[in-house]
Amino acid sequence: MMTPAELEAARDRVVPDVVAEGLRVLFCGINPGLMTAATGHHFARPGNRFWPALHASGFTPRRLRPSEQAELVTYGLGITNVVARASARADELSHEEYREGGRILEEKVLRLRPRWLAVAGVTAYRVAFGDKRAKIGPQTRTIGETRIWALPNPSGLNAHWTLPAMAEEFARLRAAAEAEG
């Protein structure tokens, strides 16, 4: 377990993306938490439900550990963030950071051309892309040929989404991605 000082030392670090061109789904977190920044592994906090939901939805044949994140590319999956810098909580980010992150994310998506961009956090999606009415699920907006899906935030702080409900939403995305080949 990391000490509070070790976690605090990770503040503002940038965690490298796990990406490749032409992915089926590029998952996009809000921004790295301190545990993620300290370990260099996305969605690393033990209470985060990203990895369990990914497996329960059928995206991966087994539950991957955050340290196995590079394996995602073999399944046509990747991970990035709306805002690159690490913080203890997403509410430490400014609206300007979200909007700038959305602009950078759009450039990244145009370059990498994933079939789907899955933003894990509908509020972050709303702010980053200026879509105040966005709801969980597929969006009408596209980035080039890339479709967008807003997923629930897998943080343990998002308690009104249970793991089974979250996995069901991830599975809806998986079915849509598979239906397109």
TrEMBL record:
Enzyme Commission designation: 3.2.2.-
GO MF term list: hydrolase activity, acting on glycosyl bonds
InterPro entries assigned to the protein according to its UniProt record, in alphabetical order: MUG/TDG (IPR015637), Uracil-DNA_glycosylase-like (IPR005122), Uracil-DNA_glycosylase-like_sf (IPR036895)
Pfam families: UDG (PF03167)
Keywords, alphabetical: DNA damage, DNA repair, Glycosidase, Hydrolase
Transmembrane spans: none
Domain Uracil-DNA glycosylase-like: from-to ranges: 16-174
The protein's enzyme class: hydrolase
Name this polypeptide is given: TDG/mug DNA glycosylase family protein
Natural source organism: Streptomyces demainii
Taxonomic path: Bacteria, Bacillati, Actinomycetota, Actinomycetes, Kitasatosporales
